[in-house]
Write a structure and sequence with these properties.
By secondary structure, the protein is α+β, with helices and mostly antiparallel strands. It has a domain of about 220 residues: Acid Proteases (Cathepsin D, subunit A, domain 1). α7 crosses α8. This is Peptidase A1 domain-containing protein.
């Protein structure tokens, strides 16, 4: 529908057409521009609460509004710091909701940000607030700082980068504490938005591992002159109520008397009690196989074998696809004993699910097109 800025520079389609034929002229407006123009109040903002699924899988409540703020957020919105949107005069990129990110607070340690954009305000990193992107993309050094701060986490080199890029393995119930500071206000990120549980059969046993949800390597298809440093998608934005005020400047004209700005209201609170925190993390694993023993010396080789097997299946060779080896305990004949727990062996369906999970998640981690 087009919920960002309008104007000739905001549409990739228009940009491509005019690049091919400079005589083309466009007079149409986006849906959002037309809605703003028809509102006698003169307001021009949109607001989001992305919500979150409940532990039982039930979809949580979400809101999207135009020129209205839900009563529950009105007081907090009026008190929120204004985050001016930034558009570099040196970049040919389309206008975006890029705002300054002052710092990251990782496990209680504050890291000030720096920008690769020459005219970034105060030299601070610019983060694009993008509800149309699922993940977040940060520079590799910051990603390393985040995941290396988690007790017991370690980096795994993937044997097949086409299936799954290098990734961090994280104890599923380990404490994760990360906030982004914007306008002097910290926005805490729920651990569920930083760590992803991934079911995986290892040595014929159905298990779950937890890995990083923020990719290690940033691959953004941008113009020659970049316009931002961070891409902050839903994994960040669902932790705040968001208001994007075009301020009557829907084309983000740098010469206009008013300029756009955003407001963020923190929604997620850090759980400081260790017992309560562990219970919350265990609830996030509900319905999944038991967590793998990542301290086992054989864990990493088995994990790399599973990834290689997934690569073989993708390339048309299903052998060794994570199933039990002949003669292993997982392939031994049934001794007649009944068990009250789920089967330990990984059937074909489980291997297929694992393969699909790895391939899809690998695609997410490998590249984000903006």
């Amino acid at each position: 529908m087009g919920l960002s800025f309008s104007g000739p520079g905001a549409s990739g389609i228009q940009h491509t057409l005019t690049a091919a034929d400079s005589s083309l002229e466009f007079s149409s407006q986006t849906v959002l521009s037309n809605v703003f123009a028809s509102d006698p109040s003169g307001r021009s903002f949109i607001a989001f609460d992305l919500g979150r699924d409940l532990p039982d899988g039930t979809p949580g409540d979400s809101t999207f509004s135009i020129n209205e703020v839900p009563n529950a957020y009105l007081e907090a919105v009026n008190a929120a710091p204004r985050l001016p949107a930034f558009r570099s005069a040196q970049s040919t990129d389309v206008p975006r909701w890029a705002v300054s990110v002052d710092a990251l607070v990782i496990a209680g340690n504050t890291m000030q940000t720096t920008s690769i954009i020459p005219d970034a305000p105060g030299g601070r990193a610019l983060g694009v607030l993008d509800t149309g992107t699922s993940l977040a993309i940060l520079p590799p050094d910051l990603v390393t700082a985040i995941y290396s701060s988690i007790p017991g986490a370690f980096l795994v080199k993937s044997p097949d980068q086409a299936i799954l890029p290098d990734f961090w393995v994280i104890p599923c119930t380990a404490r994760v504490s990360v906030s982004l500071v914007l306008g002097g206000q910290p926005i805490f990120i729920d651990p569920r938005d930083l760590v992803r549980p991934l079911p995986i059969p290892l040595k014929g046993v159905n298990t779950t591992i937890c890995i990083n949800l923020i990719p290690i390597q940033m691959k953004l298809m941008l113009p020659e002159v970049p316009s931002f440093d961070f891409l902050l998608g839903d994994v960040f934005l669902r932790n705040a109520f968001q208001l994007y005020d075009f301020n009557g400047n829907v084309e983000f004209d740098l010469t206009a008397p008013t300029q756009p700005y955003a407001l963020l209201v923190p929604l997620t609170k850090e759980i400081t009690d260790d017992g309560e925190y562990k219970a919350a993390r265990q609830a996030a694993l509900s319905g999944l196989p038991p967590e793998a023993d990542i301290t086992d010396p054989d864990f990493v080789p088995a994990l790399q074998d599973a990834i290689s097997s997934a690569g073989g299946m993708v390339n048309g060779n299903p052998s060794g696809a994570g199933g039990p080896e002949p003669g292993s305990s997982a392939s031994s004949p049934d001794d007649g004993k009944k068990s009250s727990v789920a089967p330990r062996t990984a059937p074909v369906g489980a291997r297929t699910f694992w393969l699909g999970s790895v391939v899809m998640f690998g695609l997410l981690l490998a590249e984000v097109v903006v």
